[in-house]
Amino acid sequence: MSNPLADMDKPDVIFCIGTNMTECHPVAATRLKRALARGAKMIVADPRRIGLAEIADVHLPIRVGSDVSLLLAMAHVIAREGLMDQAFIDERTAHGEDFMQHVAQYTPEWASGISECDPEDIEKAALLYGGADRGAIYYTVGVTEHICGVDNVQSLCNLALMTGNLGREGTGVNPMRGQNNIQGAGDAGALPNNYPGFQTVTDPAHQAKFHRAYGRKVDLETGMTKVTALDLCGDGIHAMIIDGENTLVTDPDRHHCEHALKSLDCLVVIDIFMTETAKVADVVFPATAWAETDGVCTNTERRVQRLRAAVPPPGEAKPDWWILSQLARRMGWQGFDFGSAKEVFNELCALSPLYNGLDWDRIDRGEYQWPVPARDHPGTPRLHEERFENGRGIFKMLEYRDPEETLSDEYPMWLTTGRRLPQYHTRTQTGRSDGIDYLLSEETLEVHPDDIVRLGLEDGGYAELSNPRGCVYVKVHGTTKSPKGTVFASFAFEDVPVNVLTGGGYDPVTQTAALKACPVALKPVGPPPALSQTGPETGFAAL
Amino acid sequence: MRHNGAALTLTLDGEKVAFTRGETLYEVAERHGRDIPTLCYDPRLEPFGGCRLCVVELEGARNPVASCTMQADPGMVVRTRTASIEVQRRILMEMVASENRDADVDPMHGYASQEMAELLDRYDARTGRFAGATSGTSRPDDDNPFIKRDYENCISCYRCVRVCAEQEGDYAISVMNRGFHTQITTEFGGHLKDSACTFCGQCIQTCPTGALGDLKALANRDVPGETETTRTVCPYCGVGCSVDVMTRGEKIVGVLPAMDGPANEGALCVKGQFAFDFVHHPDRLATPFVRDDETGELRPASWDEALDFAADKLRKVVRDHGRRAVYGIASGRAPHEAAYMMQRFIRAGLGTNHIDNCSRA
C-alpha cells in the first residue's frame, strides 16, 4: 500500500476495485466502514454485489476482465470536466498532456459496451473520484489476476496521478496483500528478478554486492517465474523445492500442474500438513507453524512485525530457515551456519536498502514501515510524499484488451473465483480449526436466479462446470450477488477444485495467472453419487 | 474558544492540569493516573454515559456529571474521588451485583470479562442489599461454536451493540425493550448465524461481565497451568493484526486481540479470533518423510536420512541437468527468514535466480 492502514478512515471518496475486502481483509474493511459513517462516499467496481457493494454509493458491476475500459472512461470524464490536479501533473508527472489526449476517445458510452456498466454510473463514479479532495484507491487480486493485470494497476495509477491523489493522507493506490507475509516474501528476495530489497539482479553492482556477501557470483540473467518453471518441469527444470504452498490446488490448470510436478526428478516440499502437493513429493520436511516460530513478517502497509513462538512444535518439526540451511550444508555449501531466526533476519537487514535501518531488536514493537534506510530514519508510513522514487510519475497510454479466452456458444458463462470470509485458501488451516465449518461447510456455485431458470438448473441441485481443461461438479446456490452470465466459486474446498478450469492466459509482464475470468459451460447434473464415477479422490475428471 | 495559544488548563482534584481541546474529563483524568471506574466505556467507542460509574463532581454543576461524556473546558474544577462520589459508585455497583447471577466468571470469557468483578471487589459491593428480580434471557439455544450468549449476566452497557456498529460496521446486535426489560438481541431475535454477525468476536472481547464469552477458549478452561500470553501476528491475510496468543503449558488455549496492535487496534476477524487450533491438529507433520525406493510410498524418516536423501537427489539433478535445473518456491505464509533462506539457497548455492514466491497465483 502506498498509504498506511490508519489512512483508510480518512478519504472523502473511496474507490474499491477487485477487492472483496469485507471477506478477504475484514479488519481493514472496518476502517472503510468508519469512513463511510463519517460521510465519505464509496465507489465499488466488482462484477458481484459483494458486501462492499451493498454499502457503496455507486456499484459498477463490471464484466470480469474489463477494468481497463472502465478506468479509461473514468479518466476521460475527469479530463473532460477539468477535475485534474494540474499543479500535481505539472510538478510531478510526465506525459500528462498526451494522456489527456489519449483518453479523449474513451467515453463512458464506449466503456459501457465493454464493461456492461451503465454509462451514467461510470460518469457518476468519475465525478466522485475526480472531485475528491482525498481520493483513495484500494484493490486486490481481482485487479491483478488477469492477462491485463499490469494494465489494470497502471490504469489506477493514471487516475491517481491525474487527480494528485498520491503522497497525502487518505489518498493513494493501495493493494491489499492476500497472505500474512506475501509482502515479506518479496521483500526478502524470493523473486526471479530481484535480490532482497527489490535490488534488480541484472545490475552488475547488485551482483557484486551479493557476490561479496554470499561468496558466489549469481547470474546476471533474470530467473524464470514460477509459472514458466511449472511449464518447463521435466524439460529444463528437474527439481523443485516448494515451501508452504499447496501449488497443486491453488495454481491454475490443475491437471497441467499435477503433471508438471510429477515430471520432476526431485520434489522437496516443506509444509506443516501433508497437502496435496506434499503427497507427490520425494521428500517432505515438517515445518514449525504459526505460534511455534520466531520470525518476522511484513503486512500490506509495509509494516515489519515480529512473530513469536508461544508453544513448542509437534515432534521433530523445524523452522523453515533451519531446514533450508541444513539442506544447503548437506549440499556441501559454505556460509549457511545460522543459529537463529534473528541471525537470518539481521543478515537480510544488512543487505536490503529498505531494511538497512532495522534489525531484530528494533522491530520488537512493530512501529516501522519500510523503507527504513538508516538507523536514524523513522520509517515511511506514506510513500511518494515529496517525490517519486524514480523521478516523475509517468502516465501510461493503455488500450483495452480482451481476455485470452472469451465467451462462445460452447462456453457462454464467465466463471470468476475468490475467497469466502470463514475459510482461508485451501482450508489447510481453517478446515482444521474447530467451528469454522459451522459457518461454511461446503462450496457452492453462485448463480443468478435468471441463469438458473435459463439453464434448467435447480437451486440446491448440482451443476457440471466445464471447459476444455476439465470439469467440476458443484452445488448450485441461486443468488443475485452474481450478475447474470457470471458464476462464482471459491477454491477453498477440495471437492470443488475450480482451478481445474482456470488458466486461460497470463499477464505478459508479471506472468500472473488470469484466475478471475474463465469461460465455462454450465449444465445440470444429478446429485453427488455421480461424483464417485469421476474419480474417488478428487471428484473431477479430465474431459 | 482559543486562549491565544496558551495551554488549556483545568483543576483536577486540586491540581492544575493541561488538556487539549476535544478531550473528555475522563480522558484528562486517566492521563493523570486517576483510575476512574467504568463499565460501559471502551476507549475505541464513542462515549456512552450509561453506567454512571465515571461520575465526578464539577463545580457549578448541580449533580455529578459523567466524565466520559463531558468535554473538558478551561477553568473547570473537577473532583474525581470525593466521599459522596465513592458512595454513589458503591451503590451503583451493589445494584449491578444484584442483577448478576455469576459475578466471578472465568477470565477465558474474554479480554474485558473481569472488569465487573474487579469493581465489585474494589467497592466491596457484594452486599446483596438489592437482591430481587433479575433481567436478561440467555440464549443457550444458539448453537454457534464461538460466542456464548449468557444474557442473565448482562448489565445492558451496550458495549457489544456499540462495538458491532461503531467499530465493525456490522450492526448485527441490537437492543430490544427498555429499562428493566432491556434485552440484547439480533434482528428478529434469532441465532447469530442468521444475523449480520461475522463472528469477529469483538462483542466477546468488550463485554465487561462475561455475559458474552469465547466458547473456544472456554472449552480449554480445564487445561492445567497458568495462562500466559505471547504477542504475535495473525497467520491469515495481509492486514497483519497483532494478537496475544493465550497458552497453558504447551497448548494454545485461545487468542486475545492486541488493543495496542498497530495494524488492528484491537480488531480481529473470525479467522484471527477463532481459527488457531489447526496448530495442534493431529494431521500436523511431526517427522520428515521420504519416498521409499521399493514401495514408491512416502515413509517417515529421520532428519539425517531425509536431508541426505534430498541433497543426494538435488546433487544428481545438478550433475545431470546443470545448476539451472533446480527451482525454489518460497511461501507467502512463512516468515521472512524462510523466504530469505530459500533465495539464499538458490542464489548462493546454485548461482541462479530461479526463485519465486506464491504471489502469481
Describe, in plain words, how this protein is organized in 3D.
The complex is a heterodimer of chains A (543) and B (361). With 543 residues, chain A is α/β, with parallel strands linked by helices. Chain A has four domains: 5-176, Dimethylsulfoxide Reductase, domain 2 (3-Layer(aba) Sandwich); 179-223 and 287-370, 3-Layer(aba) Sandwich (Rossmann fold), CATH 3.40.50.740; 229-286, no CATH class; 413-541, Barwin-like endoglucanases (Beta Barrel). Chain A is 30% helix and 17% strand. In chain A, helix 4 crosses helix 8 (119-131). Mean pLDDT of chain A is 94; it is low at 530-543. By secondary structure, chain B is an alpha+beta fold. Chain B has four domains: 8-81, Roll (Ubiquitin-like (UB roll)); 100-219, 2-Layer Sandwich (Alpha-Beta Plaits), CATH 3.30.70; 223-283, Single Sheet (N-terminal domain of TfIIb); 289-360, no CATH class. Chain B contains nine helices and 16 strands. In chain B, strand 3 and strand 4 (65-66) form a beta hairpin. Chain B is elongated, with a radius of gyration of 28 Å. Chain B starts with 7 loop residues before the first strand and ends with a strand. Chains A and B meet through helix 2, helix 11, helix 13, strand 9 and strand 10 of A and strand 10, strand 11, helix 7, strand 13 and helix 8 of B. Strand 9 of chain A pairs parallel with strand 15 (326-330) of chain B, so a sheet runs across the interface.
Secondary-structure blueprint of this entry?
The complex is a heterodimer of chains A (about 550) and B (about 350).
Chain A: E1 13-17, H1 21-24, H2 26-37, E2 41-45, H3 51-54, E3 58-60, H4 67-80, H5 86-92, E4 93-94, H6 96-103, H7 108-115, H8 119-131, E5 135-139, H9 141-144, H10 149-163, E6 172-175, H11 182-187, E7 194-195, E8 199-200, H12 204-214, H13 226-231, E9 239-243, H14 247-250, H15 254-262, E10 266-271, H16 276-279, E11 283-286, E12 295-298, E13 304-307, H17 320-330, H18 341-351, E14 393-394, E15 413-418, H19 436-439, E16 444-447, H20 449-454, E17 462-467, E18 470-478, E19 486-490, E20 518-525, H21 529-532, E21 540-541
Parallel strand pairs in A: 1-2, 1-5, 2-3, 4-14, 5-6, 9-10, 10-11, 15-19, 16-18
Antiparallel strand pairs in A: 7-8, 12-13, 15-20, 17-18, 17-20, 18-21
Helix pairs in contact in A: 4-7, 4-8, 4-10, 7-8
Chain B: E1 8-12, E2 15-19, H1 25-31, E3 55-58, E4 65-66, E5 77-79, H2 83-99, H3 115-122, E6 147-149, H4 159-167, E7 173-176, E8 183-186, H5 202-206, E9 212-214, H6 215-218, E10 228-233, E11 242-248, E12 251-257, H7 270-274, E13 289-291, E14 298-300, H8 303-321, E15 326-330, H9 336-350, E16 355-357
